[in-house]
Amino acid sequence: MQAEQVIEKILSDARAQAEAIKKQAEDREAAETARLKEDLTRFEQETKTLAEKAGADERSQRLAVARMEVAKEYLAAKAGLLDEVFAQARQSVEKLPDGEYRELMARLMAEAVETGDEKVVPGKNDARIDAGLVAEVNARLKDKGKLALADQKHNFGAGFLLQRGKVRTNVSIDVLVQQARKDLEIEVAKDLFSNNAGAGRSR
């Protein structure tokens, strides 16, 4: 399973969650508007002389406060949701079955190779990137395959570095997810929060 597919599955679930949040916010705004209209009607009945000015001012002020609260809730929901989505994406990649994980790492390693004689430096907690995996990637690279497993490990959790001299290519899981977030965050934010929960819509 490719990392992009894992992340897209989690994003799909997140979109459903975000749509539910959006619907709740819109329902709350509609209910607040309806309540404010009822308050305004009652206010107009009690004090007809001052209703037009005072009622309009009151309605405008209370609607502005309500919209501000909805907007704040939506911004917090967006930030929290995206953080959770990509944290889950990282965990999902790390928890892939050994066969799927090793295949993913082998594919990423083969794609990241430039010269073919780099050292493979696994993450400190990544026991699945071993000499056998490196040998498998070398076989895929054929004549170019001269990768070697480094004696040391790097201080990130999972994934690997390809190192040749002072040149390093970081293919850690954290970097993989960060790249996916950079690519997808704008799209997700636009799709789910483009209207900012309707907070700025005039009524």
The radius of gyration is: 27 Å
Tell me the number of structural domains.
2
Span between termini: 47 Å
Q: What composes the largest sheet? A: 4 strands, mixed
Helix content: 55-70%
In round numbers, the mean pLDDT is: 76
The helix tally amounts to: 5
What class do helices, strands and sheet pairing give?
alpha+beta
The overall strand count is: 4
The general outline is rod-shaped
Order of strands, widest sheet? 2-1-3-4
Percent strand = 5-15%
Query: Low-confidence parts, pLDDT < 50 over ≥5 residues?
Result: 199-203
**Order of helical and strand elements:** HHHEHEEEH
General description of the model:
There is one protein chain. The protein is α+β, with helices and mostly antiparallel strands and 203 residues long. The chain contains five helices and four strands. The chain has helices spanning 3-46, 48-94, 98-112, 131-141, 173-193; strands spanning 119-122, 148-149, 159-164, 167-172. The protein has a four-stranded mixed beta sheet with strand order 2-1-3-4. Helix 1 (3-46) packs antiparallel against helix 2 (48-94), helix 2 packs antiparallel against helix 5 (173-193) and helix 3 (98-112) crosses helix 4 (131-141). The longest helix has 47 residues, at 48-94. The protein is rod-shaped, with a radius of gyration of 27 Å. The chain starts with a helix and ends in a 10-residue tail after the last helix.
